[in-house]
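Let's sit down with a protein and look at its sequence and fold side by side. We need material for that, and I hope you will provide a protein of your own picking. Once you have written the record down, we can walk along the chain together.

***
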Amino acid sequence: MSYRKRTAALASAAALAGSAVWMAAPVARAEVVDVNYQCKTPIGDKSAVSPIDIKGVKSGNGYRITMSWQKGVSSSPVELGKGAMTPSATIALGGADSGTLSVTGPANDAAIPANTPIKISDLSGTYRSKKSGEITFTAGVLTIKALGTTTTCTPTNDPGPSLTLDVEAAGGGGTTGSAQGGGSGPDTGAGLPQTGPEDSAVALGTLGGTVLLAGAAGALWLTRRHQGARAGR
């Protein structure tokens, strides 16, 4: 094989290596899903539909999962003062894992007027998988505690997953904290890149570019070596 052909082959191999890294990108899919909640309240049954968004952010050897409500659910016949209402919820796990993940959040930071849909703050929990594969996260039961009462809101429309992650099993994984199945524990890596498709694409594109540059550097080194060898003849 001629020198030029060997150089071209090296460059092509580097490009293919970058493409292989790109094709091996972990899957992360998120979408907003409408959830029809039927709520059991101290004053009777109520219903409300809210779009639910679930996001995952890499956190240590797990993922910080955050669940968001785009509309209020249920209501109170009396005003709920600041800090009077505390929400929590479960997220159903599917795919390669099963069980539920518990997510919690702060009490209301402002008073909620009477007979007004209750806006739920973002709820979070840490997920650590015991298994590798594609995991789905679907809105589960919402619990609202206020003024000594408990309201339970259950999805009735069999909503689809709001988030799908392709994950690697956490080292020494297991069930800890408030999660059942996936496991939950203290967050040790807040603020790391989000696991959405765009962030994964950027990171993997950078890695693929690094592989390509490494291949080009190797080809350049061979070029200089070949030229040096010819000059020394």
Q: What stands out?
A: The helical segments are 3-23, 197-231. Residues 197-231 form the longest helix (35 residues). Confidence is low (pLDDT under 50) at residues 15-26, 172-233.
